[in-house]
Amino acid sequence: MNAFQKNVPDQTFETLNRHGEFTRLAVSPGIINKHYTPAQFQKIAEVAGEKGAIKYSASYSILVSIPTSAVTEAMQALREVGLYVAPSGPIIAMKACDFCDGEKMEAAPITEQLYHALEGIEVPARVRVNINGCASACYNAVYDDIGLVYQQESFDVYLGAVPMGAKAQAGMLFAKKVGVEHIEDFLLQMMNLYKEHARPNEPFFKFYRRTKSTEYWELVKKSIN
Ligand code: SF4
């Protein structure tokens, strides 16, 4: 049996960090696409080499730990084979379902628009915006900081999910049927509130739960009516 206690890796992200300066890169084939090509897998293996380590994560990406001195070259090599290297730090990070392997692409153009408008904006603590392309929400949008569930040219917007820990909880429905023509401005307004009123490093769910009864959230809701 190779799945349990006998299957412990020698070289882990933890052991690498004990012996040198390593950086973790989150790599995926794209925001929507979840299929890797063999060439992309080969490149990930090449970039990690004998010194690094590779593992999969819960955030639709593969994590690669490599010596910090090699990061710039590694990122370039990964991007050359079409891989997406997620930026790190306290920014807005976009996620999406795979739109049924590209068969159900109705929400793809607005997803791309939101990616260009939001990804990388600096915020007090990392905010994950997860877009799912239909009411099945099978990529768990409601368990991310901001969950957007698409239906007929609009989104249901969920806020305040506690993504992990003993108190993990799905987000609460904040607004129903926000039209695609309003959603970018709607999210930017929320992020401006977060930047303006959050405590230092306050996670988005704590900020939302602490302030949700204040008038400024009502004003955001009213802005789409
Ligand atoms: S959420 Fe809907 S569109 Fe997205 S992968 Fe699941 S079933 Fe397909």
Concise synopsis of the structure shown:
The chain has 225 residues and is an alpha+beta fold.
- What's the CATH H-level homologous superfamily of the largest domain? Sulfite Reductase Hemoprotein, domain 1
What oligomeric state best describes the polypeptide chains here?
single chain
Distance between the termini: 59 Å
CATH class of the largest domain: Alpha Beta
Mean pLDDT: 95
Q: What general form does the structure show? A: globular
Helix amount: 25-40%
Hetero ligands: iron/sulfur cluster
Q: What Rg is obtained from the alpha carbons, in whole angstroms?
A: 19 Å
InterPro entries: NO2/SO3_Rdtase_4Fe4S_dom, NO2/SO3_Rdtase_4Fe4S_sf, NO2/SO3_Rdtase_FeS/sirohaem_BS
Pfam families: NIR_SIR
Domain Nitrite/sulphite reductase 4Fe-4S: 100-201
GO molecular function: 4 iron, 4 sulfur cluster binding; heme binding; metal ion binding; methyltransferase activity; oxidoreductase activity
Task: Write up this protein.
- Keywords: 4Fe-4S, Iron, Iron-sulfur, Metal-binding, Methyltransferase, Transferase.
- GO terms for molecular function: 4 iron, 4 sulfur cluster binding; heme binding; metal ion binding; methyltransferase activity; oxidoreductase activity.
- This is Precorrin-3B methylase.
- Pfam families: NIR_SIR.
- One of its GO terms (biological process) is methylation.
- Helix 5 packs parallel to helix 6 and helix 6 runs antiparallel to helix 8.
- The N and C termini lie far apart (59 Å).
- This protein is globular.
- Strand 7 and strand 8 form a beta hairpin.
- The strands form 2 sheets. It has a 5-stranded mixed sheet with strand order 5-6-7-8-9.
- The model has no long low-confidence stretch (mean pLDDT 95).
- The chain contains 8 helices and 9 strands.
- The chain is an alpha+beta fold.
- It folds into 2 domains: 74 residues, Alpha-Beta Plaits; 131 residues, Sulfite Reductase Hemoprotein, domain 1 (2-Layer Sandwich), CATH 3.30.413.
- The protein binds iron/sulfur cluster (SF4).
- The site of iron/sulfur cluster (SF4) has 12 residues, from helix 4.
